[in-house]
Specification:
This protein is an alpha+beta fold and 313 residues long. 36% of the residues lie in helices and 28% in strands. The longest helix is centred in the first third of the chain and has 41 residues.
Length: 313
């Protein structure tokens, strides 16, 4: 009799566990279906498709962790052959650029394009937007499936957190990168016998990234530049722009020929509390600053990064 009662309890426990798991899977299915429905309802197409249509949609995820969400999308991008760029955070909002790589050939043009993802904690909204290049065409149904498939894969659970952590450990896109000005300039320079730089790829790769840069500054002694620097203080703009010295960057095995283009790293500062410190720098002085890339100009030979910079200490 005692064994019969024990077996009955075990059976009830098994039924309870099985029922709980089943309900969990059903709830997960309902949540996924709701997210898919919301994503489809929010999906919008605009612009002339001959010039490259623009696509936008979003989902609402309760208790959205923006860092985890962007990390999970990075993982999806890596697994799908897309190129994740840098994450950028400001207040309750985080942004990430993912690049669909250029697959063009001599016989077939199939240009890449950037995909912008924004995660906002204040409204728990995860949004995605992209614009195709001129001549690229996709059906709204295919694009909706692609975009909603990525957005609805984001989960606020342990599996999602693990996926985000795996992506961040691989890309380090959410970290401050320590680098010298020369090393950074070298990454922005085409070397001899290598492929030309792709300006769009460079822009997508660096925009929003944060670096801790160490190096010597390059300040011209020209009267015109000195006057411009002083006027920037006098007219109330309170801004200053200083370049790092990247003269040791090489374009070939034997160095850099005269007139060759090399990568440039330029700091801008608008913090009135640090302005005097930047103004006190002399040509050749060493400096270590933290800078966020806010603008990129590039061609096939070299790129220039403009960063909002501040002294850490």
């Amino acid at each position: 009799m005692h064994f019969a009662v024990a077996r009955h309890r075990d059976k009830n426990r098994f039924v309870a566990i099985f029922t709980g798991l089943l309900l969990g899977f059903l709830l997960l299915g309902v949540k996924t279906a709701c997210a898919q429905n919301e994503c489809a309802a929010n999906f919008k197409v605009s612009g002339d498709p001959r010039n490259g249509a623009t696509y936008l949609t979003y989902v609402t995820i309760p208790q959205l962790d923006i860092h985890s969400a962007l990390g999970q999308i990075e993982k999806t991008a890596l697994d799908s052959g897309l190129a994740p760029g840098a994450e950028s955070y400001e207040g309750d909002e985080g942004t990430l650029t993912v690049v669909r790589k250029d697959k063009s050939s001599l016989l077939h043009q199939n240009k890449g394009f950037p995909i912008l993802i924004k995660a906002n904690k204040s409204n728990n909204r995860l949004a995605m937007a992209l614009q195709l290049n001129q001549g690229q065409v996709s059906t709204a149904e295919d694009m909706q499936t692609f975009m909603c498939g990525i957005l609805t894969s984001v989960k606020m659970d342990s599996a999602g957190a693990a996926s985000a952590a795996a992506a961040h450990s691989q890309t380090h896109s959410d970290e401050i990168t320590n680098i010298t000005a020369t090393e950074l300039g070298q990454k922005l320079t085409k070397r001899a016998f290598t492929r030309n730089l792709n300006p769009q790829d460079i822009e997508n790769q660096y925009t929003g990234r944060v670096f801790r840069i160490d190096g010597q500054v390059s300040i011209s002694s020209a009267i015109g530049e000195a006057l411009a620097r002083s006027q920037s203080i006098q007219n109330g703009t309170n801004s200053i722009q200083i370049a790092f010295n990247t003269s040791k960057v090489k374009t070939g095995l034997l160095g850099t020929p005269a007139g060759a283009q090399t990568g440039q790293v330029i700091c801008r500062s608008t913090d009135p509390k640090q302005l005097n410190r930047f103004m006190a720098l002399r040509n050749g002085d060493y400096a270590t600053v933290i800078g966020k890339v806010v603008q990129v100009t590039a061609d096939q030979f070299a790129a220039t990064l403009y960063l909002d910079c501040h002294f850490e200490k």
